[in-house]
Amino acid sequence: MEHNGWRSGFSSMRANHQIDENGRLKHFLSIEGLPRDLLLDILDSAERFAPVGERAVKNVPLLRGKTVVNLFFEPSTRTRSTFELAAKRLSADIMNLNIDSSATSKGESLPDTLRTLEAMHCDMFVVRHQNSGAAEFIARQVAPHISVINAGDGRHAHPTQAMLDMLTIRRKKQQFKGLVVAIVGDIAHSRVARSEIQALNTLGVAEVRVVGPKTLIPSQIEALGTKVFHQIESGIKGADVVIMLRLQQERMQSSLLPSAQEYFQAYGLTERRLKLAANDAVVMHPGPINRGIEIDSAVADGPQSVILQQVTHGIAVRMAVMSMAIGAQATSGAT
Amino acid sequence: MNIDVNMLLDTLSEEVKEHLAESDRKEPLIIGVHTGGVWIANALRERLAIDDPIGELNIAFYRDDFSRIGLHPTVEPSLLPFDIDDRNLILVDDILYTGRTVRAAMNEIFDYGRPASVLLATLVERGGRELPIRADVVGTRLNLKASEHVKLLGPDPLRLELSKAKI
Asked: CB–CB of A55 and B111 under 8 A?
């Protein structure tokens, strides 16, 4: 497992590992290498699952009898709980395993943990890990009847977050063509940014901009199809979508950044700065937000913010991806 | 064989009216099953002069063949733009065959609420039931062999296509 997911080519070499012999999504590990039609399938499926959350009975029997394991090697509240809710709305059984605090601290190896879970007849692992490539590694280790969903691995990828952002953008803007999207903040350490850039370019937006201080922008990022800006004012000018990234507090301690106040001065999204973007620009944030560090409360709670809609869309997107992957298991080997 | 779908729709709506009157069911709501059932539901709503919009069911999440064929790649979501609690429903599909679609549709309906009653109306009823389900009202009954298929094409114009399976 390599730590720096930005430059390594491990997923581009094996991108098709996610797709089975019928072209269906078997694992969901990364946006990289997935065709546009498949991303649109995910969005269309999510649209069908979205109304389920608004009904009297908020679940459908689609994955009844299936067992999903949330395999979290890194703490998370939001992602883990929306995966859990998505599984429950599909009537699957779900088990949460926080590996930090269980088997590995007793010295069990990862392959042994996986074998143990397989012996419990699980159908899907949702994996969150601090190391880039961990989900891919696990997908290669597990028995063929198990699907793996990447819920964030190191700096590499967070594909369900990217797709829920795409759903939010499509609902607000109807189409991707012609859109200018600015991603602001700590690009270098962000798996969310990486997956978003890949999804936006696959779906065909006009321009993806990355905005942030030099210390937080990876050196070869233009190669992913982005324009680099170091000033937020020029970076968000005329943008249709502004995506603010969460600033991890530990970056400040590592001398990549000055203080939180200085960061807010230079890159915080305020109402005044937002006026530079398109009049109908929407503001997004993967959460949890640091008020007064990367975003002003007036913007986060303002009329252009779609931050809470992103959360709602996250459940629909995760329902879609889980159903597609477990559905692909049904047919694999059938043809 | 040429079947006039409009004539079948006339028959169907007359029979629905009669059935509702006999059982004293007032202010019915119509729910169609995607895709053909929605076409028939729209035609029925017009003939019965019902003001409420129709409901649309996409039963993909309730099918019993998910573990065999996976998720159906259809786009339209289910949409019931009304409260079904204590209402008289007319569940509409184009062709009643195995009964599995109706089973799935009934399960989905009850996840939206508890209707007072459900009347099943289908344009065509053919043999081949695999579940204990029958229609209350039908446009026509066709005697078809297992190797023969009937399909509703539409929406404009609606027409029935009969074909033999190629073996």
From this structure: yes
pLDDT score at A258: 77
Q: Which residues of B touch A47 (CB under 8 A)?
A: 75, 77
Can you give the pLDDT at residue A266? 95
Q: Considering only CA atoms, which of A120, A103, A121 is closest in space to residue A112?
A: A103
For A10-157+314-331, CATH number?
3.40.50.1370
Token reading at A160: 């369900």
ipTM over 0.90: no
Does A49 have pLDDT greater than 50? yes
Encoded tokens for B102: 């109706």
Among B159, B163, B121, residue whose Cα is nearest residue B139: B121
Cα–Cα dist A189/A4, whole Å:
9
Cα(A67)–Cα(A38) distance, rounded to whole angstroms? 25
Domain spans, chain A: 10-157+314-331, 159-311
For the domain A159-311, what is the CATH code? 3.40.50.1370
Q: Classify residue B73: in a domain, yes or no.
A: no
B→A interface, C-beta within 8 Å:
58, 60-62, 66-71, 73-79, 107-108, 110-113
Q: Give the separation between CA A5 and CA A123, rounded to whole angstroms.
A: 27
Pick the residue of A26, A48, A147, A331 with the most B CBs within 10 A to test the interface with B by mutation. A48
Q: What is the CATH number of the domain that holds B144?
A: 3.40.50.2020
pTM of the model: 0.89
Question: How far does Cα A325 stand from its chain's mean position?
Answer: 17
- Beta-carbon separation of B111 and A324 below 8 A: no
The domain of B108 spans 5-65+86-164
The dihedral of CA B108, B110, B111, B113: what is its sign? positive
* Count of the separate structural domains present in chain B: 1
In angstroms, the CA A198 to CA A134 distance is 19
Specify if B71 maps to a domain: no
Dihedral over alpha carbons B130, B133, B134, B138 (to 10 degrees): -80
Cα distance from B71 to chain A (closest Cα, Å)? 5
